[in-house]
Amino acid sequence: MTGATVPHGGRADAAGSGRSTLAAVVTMYRLTAGHRGAIAVAVVLTLVGSALGLAQPLVAKQAVDASGRGQVVWPLLTLLGALFAVEAVTGAAGRFLLERMGEGVVRQLRHGLVGRLLRLEMREYDRHRGGDLISRVTADTTLLREVVSQALVDLVTGSLVAAGAIALMAWLDPLLLLLVAVTVAAAAVVVASLLTGIRNASEHMQGAVGAVAADMERALSALPMVRVHRAEEREVAGIGARVDAAYGAGVRTAKLASVMSSAVELAVQGSFLIVLVVGGLRVGGRAGSLGDLVAFLLYASYLVLPLSSVFRAMGLVQRGMGAYQRIDEALRLPVEPAAPRNPADRPPARRPTGPSGTREPPVLALRDVHFGYAPERPVLRGVSFTVPQRRHVALVGRSGAGKSTVFALIARFYEPDAGALLFDGRPATELTRDACRRRIAVVDQNTHVVHGTLRENIAYAVPDATDAEIREVVELARLEEVVDRLPGGLSAVIGERGSNLSGGERQRVALARALLARPSLLLLDEPTSHLDAINESALTTVMKDIAQECALLVIAHRLSTVQHADHVVVLQDGRTAAGGRHEELLAGNALYRDLAAGQMLRSGGSRGSASGRGRTVEAPPSRPGRP
């Protein structure tokens, strides 16, 4: 994982998931690794400011008593003002350091999450929804920022300041302090009983927010389908149910937090009233001085803020643990192994032109490969074929035969359950995934085009490509008309998922991007699925040119795309059923004849009839508006 190292200790089911506030505080403290110096300075500044605040009631006591004796009080008032000003400055500086530290922790977490989520094993993306994973990077880390920047320090400084205030109150009047302690203890019992509920409600709320993000991402990514099928109201209702779930969990969290806040507020106000009434009676009975009562009341009011901050921090830490559980879970998802690059893993230099020699190892070989996305549901049951250097090999078969799964294994998204893949004669297990992927490029059927300029999309794999290199692949992919049409040419910004390009144009952009990487093996998944007949014919010519530079492995249902391939591999039920040239398979393989009949192909590659099961299958007459 690249980026900042994200500290997190213990398994999520160990200290991280402990329901006690102490375990939660320890877990949150671990997140501040690397920022302890800033925390120490902030704590010192906060304590200095608090000490200055604690000194102010004593000065006020002296001023009240001096005024009662007719003495000059302006020096004491000046000192009181200075103490107040210095307290404000140190408090502001400490708070800034804490906020900056909180932002630093969030940045660290987000770097770690982004680096982790982009490197997950492909199986993990099958198990987790993309929007929910994104929510962990955004919403969950934002909640943690408040915890680490405020709650942890508030717990420390609030406890110390409260201890100092209590000590001074004990020195001034132990009886009044006892009355205050009883009232505060009652509030503490209420707070402690609510903390577990607050954490549970927070976990449910964060999970519901993640579900909202996941459902929104799903609906927006398929917005044309949603609108064509008039499903807006259904999607609004479905996502609205997720929103309602988040609302319910948020309301429960707010209810518990409100009860806790009210308990603390009532305890503070109650203790203040007790001090005021009992202390006033004692002053009236000459059992204490007015200055002592004023100082005690000030300390009682000073006790409000630290105690409130401590109780609030306890609730906030438990809420933060709900977010941390989700972040920690994401940080523990398995990622692809990141082995160091080895110069020996580089693909061999390609010959400039001409067919490969007989002694050259094939660029790719599959030997009796078995694989299943789930152990009980095998997809490939023994696939074997080779792709020689600078040769055009096609994969055909019915839907579900395993063609796209073969591509996923070649790209090392998954590993075979049995059998072997070889690149340039070397087993894939001896190469890093990076080394394997540097040998290939893929033009996916989904034609991934991202928001950005046309140049950025083409040069995605080679961001430092020269203008001449980009122009070369633009011409090879027949993109000149697109470049001329778009305002700004290569600098034109294409919309999200290439919304201002046609399906065929997006496919040609993906082809140009793949060619720019100069791979040893180019994988084409349904390259003509979005092309008209003219562009399909042009692509066939392009593929012939590409085959002079690198090997081609093409998946196609439209057999017109593969009839000129050097070799055609027929897959059936996850097995290699046959292999050979187009004409040979028409003559000798029943499945291929059926596929050809469905595509109205005949020997020689022209449309109109197809050989099938020993007879000629004539093409039906064309209908208006139908190819």
UniProtKB/TrEMBL annotation:
Q: Which domain of life is it from?
A: Bacteria
- For this UniProt entry, which segments traverse the membrane? 38-60, 72-98, 151-171, 177-198, 262-281, 293-311
State the UniProt keywords alphabetically: ATP-binding, Membrane, Nucleotide-binding, Transmembrane, Transmembrane helix
Where does the record place the ABC transporter domain? 364-598
Q: Name one Pfam family in it.
A: ABC_membrane
- Ranges of compositional bias, category Low complexity: 602-614
**Which residues lie in coiled coils?**
none
Name all ABC transmembrane type-1 domain ranges: 40-319
Q: Which PROSITE patterns match?
A: ABC_TM1F, ABC_TRANSPORTER_1, ABC_TRANSPORTER_2
- Membrane protein topology class: Multi-pass membrane protein
- InterPro entries on file: AAA+_ATPase, ABC1_TM_dom, ABC1_TM_sf, ABC_transporter-like_ATP-bd, ABC_transporter-like_CS, P-loop_NTPase, Type_1_exporter
Location within or outside the cell = Cell membrane
- Entry GO MF terms: ATP binding
Residue ranges for the region (Disordered) are 336-362, 602-627
- Which PANTHER family does the record match to this protein? ATP-BINDING CASSETTE SUB-FAMILY B MEMBER 10, MITOCHONDRIAL, ATP-DEPENDENT PERMEASE MDL1, MITOCHONDRIAL
Protein name in UniProt: ABC transporter ATP-binding protein/permease
